[in-house]
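Q: Convert this sequence to structure tokens.
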Amino acid sequence: MRISKTLRLAALGVAGALALAACSSSGGAQENDTDAGNTAAPAAGGTSYTIAMVTHEQAGDSFWDKIRAGAEAAATAHGIDLKYSNDPDGAKQATLIQNAVDSQVDGIATTMATPDSVGPAAQAAIAAGIPVVAFNSGISDYTKYGVNMYFGSDEDLAGQTVGQKIAAEGGTKTLCVIQAQGSVALDARCNGVTKTAGNTEVLYVNGEDLTAVTSTLQAKLQQDTAITDVVTLGAPIALAALQAKTDAGSQAKVITFDLNADVAQAIQDGTIEFSVDQQPYVQGYMAVTSLWLNLSNGNDIGGGKPTLTGPSIVDSANIGPIVEYAKNNTR
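A:
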């Protein structure tokens, strides 16, 4: 099947990056923690750079631990002083980028979940002579603001892949759950699902309140017994969906984007059908490494096109070794 070939090529495209990446683990991020850095000695014979990583991380989402683990491994490898900060509000994330410019960092890696807010801030940083790399979100928008490099998944393709699998396995009604309204990446995922799965309903929830997510999904599954598949767009939401399914007495299948240790175990146990992995560890690692290469040697990666880190399907056929990677925050 052509999609499977595409997924394999995407994985091959980052194989070199994975070979370079050292295993690392990270605790939860502190919101707006602009002083939370990874200070390392400069690489042998090199210059020490300060790089700011600014994301739209939501509180309580373990996905970002993997981003940070990859970024910190790259910072250690290249002698970089890494400054991490985050805010899920686009305007506030833009302010964090401006703060990084004001502090005269050498480079900035940023997500662009809300490009209308974050894009102009990235453009201003470039105008100030600071190279900017985009990753994780904003694949369709980063070049509009003068950003040359992007590391992430093709979210529309990922959504279409999920929809195709649902249709092939006989699903007749899909519920796609978006946990952060206004995120272009999450919208693209559900749009892709709708293109190929057919009958799809989008449900918005507040991803920062998992108790409310569980109760909302339980009520929805009890109210609409025609739902055959629930697609969640983050690992914590998938676990909430599992609980909601149990509480509602629903037979719907649970499918998710992204992995954590609990979701990987659930796939191995057969309670989650499969996950679409975008390899966030690689995104963090390559975002920092690409800035180091640019600063130290004038390199750009991707020729102005996005460097894909996914999508990659994780299911019962390949979950074995991935369970351990997920535990170590390297997948």
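Confidence is low (pLDDT under 50) at residues 1-36.
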